[in-house]
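Suppose a colleague, Dr. K., hands you the sequence of a protein chain of 189 amino acids and asks what its three-dimensional shape might be. Before reaching for any lab equipment, you can write down a predicted structure in token form. Begin with the sequence itself:
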Amino acid sequence: ENIKLYAKWDKIKITVKFDNNKIEAYLSLGISPLANNEKVYIGDKIYLSAVNLEEGELPSWTINGKPSASIKPSSLPIGIPHFYEYVVKEQDAENRIISFDYSIIQAEKLTIKYDNSIKRIFIPKNGTPEIPNGSKVYDGTVIAVEANLPTGKIIDKCLVNGKPVSGMLEMAMFVYKVSSADADSSKTL
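The predicted structure, expressed as tokens, is then:
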């Protein structure tokens, strides 16, 4: 006799593995913590943070022991911590497992130059030290750019080498993660 059949698809679950002492992982724009051995789905966006790095150190990410270009610096508003984004892909999973890790690499030093529209630049983590014009700063360092603004004005956008960059605006201050991608050919921002 005739029967109606209805198809149903289940999302593929993939287990995420990482060392809790080295990595913090999040879902939902860095708000929902992701635990080691937790399940995620293809297309989920994971935010990773390498913990306990020293100044001048950056993570070189791996997936299942292989270097990965799929883990990129996050476009989230910056501040704390330094997030990297990864979108879950089936081809990265071995036996439906994705293991994240990183090795430490030395960050590049970039020169910071600014004009009189800038009141001061400093590292917001501790409010100091102030970064004098022409100083070198490590790639990946979060800096606060305080503008010289007329009364009643706020920052509209921040330009680095003539191009708008993403960061976090706060009245007369712009928080920006130093990036070699924004530098010119002489490694100057």
